[in-house]
Amino acid sequence: MKNRTFFRGRAKRAVVAIAIALPLLGAFDSGAVAASGATVRTADGALTPPTQGMTPQQSVGKGEGELNLIAWEGYAQPEWVKPFEQETGCTVNAKYAGSSSEMVSLMANGGGGQYDLVSASGDADLRLIYGGDVKPVNVNLVPAWKQLRPFLQSPDFNTINGVHYGISLQFGPNDLLYSTKVFPKAPPSWSVIYSKQYAGKITVPNNPIQIADAALYLSAHQPKLGITDPYELTQSQFNAAVTLLKQQRPLIKAYWNLASDEISLFANGEVVAGASWPYQTGQLQAAKVKVADTIPSEGATGWADSWLLAAKAPHPNCAYKWLAYISTAKVQAEQAVNYGETPDNSLACPLMNQLQKGSCDSLHANEPDAYFKSIKFWKTPLAQCDNGQDNCVPFQQWATAWTQVTG
């Protein structure tokens, strides 16, 4: 893995997203009125993205010669960008963003007629979609879309009402990292990070979306709460998750912001269990630190990135050429190995091992369907639940509560 900025940005995405999320999600909370470029409600009360009615491009013509990307640093590496430029004649200009909030800001007004694509994560996708900053894409113009894992072809974080606004790219679970000295066998439950037995030896990300992890745990251990989606919580469900996190607070050695922070904590023996990513496991095991990771019985949350098409993309043909190229098994394998992610293309695994022996296993690219189904991918918490009721807790309350939890 050559790039580390990714992990700085990803760990802080939801934390720094508040300034932009508040006004935008506030509009969702009150039920945005029908207006040009505004999110509207259908007759049954469902939210409708303002660009839903735009007809997607039906064919790909000659490239415009330029392609302007907003991306996580490392998502436009020379290893795969240069061959794309040579193949298509589209010169790639990448603007790297350090957080989801920066991506949303840069994509304001449909990309402002400047940007073509953005590599958004699940905690930003819905803000961009309901903000009218991205438009529908034609998956038929992306041949490798059919090779994507089925659960990532039309996920609810980039596909609304059957309309695709992006092409899924790479993903990863938020798994349980543990010391094999303390746990000779993988802990079967997330209960270890809430147990007083390991007080002062626990670490979790410094991120409001961590509330979803607590909610996922409670969905299994307090079924009477009725939690079915950890990102769609009623007030009572939300309060229960926050209470659990407040009870966990005295057990925490540190809330980590960087992957390197958590790596140091485990390497120095300061913690024995924590929420993590496969990247940390790989780095620690390479350094001969006795750790392993697992997805416990309750399942796990996870992140997934997608390339979304700007509503005012100035170079749509080059954009579609990029979507087709970046979705192929070969390029997905290159990015996965370079970046420490799991590729969405189901055919990438053997190519990964050619690039780096054992990378397919270490990045969980060949796991059975049951493994992937156990992951609840990030999505922006909105006031309107999927059932159309306006009784879910929106993201700004998550951010406020997280500040109260962490002190």
Account of the protein in words:
With 407 residues, this protein is an alpha/beta fold. It folds into two domains: 56-171 and 303-365, Periplasmic binding protein-like II (D-Maltodextrin-Binding Protein, domain 2); 173-302 and 382-406, Periplasmic binding protein-like II (D-Maltodextrin-Binding Protein, domain 2). Helices cover 36% and strands 18% of the residues. The protein has 15 helices and 16 strands. α3 (78-88) links the parallel β3 and β4. It is globular, with a radius of gyration of 21 Å. It starts with a helix and ends with a helix.
| Rg, Å, rounded | 21 Å
CATH class value of the largest domain = Alpha Beta
| Whole-number total of structural domains | 2
Class by SSE composition: alpha/beta
Number of helices: 15
The CATH superfamily of the largest domain bears the name Periplasmic binding protein-like II
CATH architecture call of the largest domain: 3-Layer(aba) Sandwich
What's the helical proportion of residues? 25-40%
Low-pLDDT ranges: 1-37
Number of strands: 16
> Mind describing the biggest β-sheet?
7 strands, mixed
Mean pLDDT value: 89
- What fraction strand? 15-25%
Report the CATH topology name of the largest domain.
D-Maltodextrin-Binding Protein, domain 2
Task: Using the alpha-carbon principal axes, give the shape.
Answer: globular
Question: What is the CA–CA distance across the termini?
Answer: 33 Å
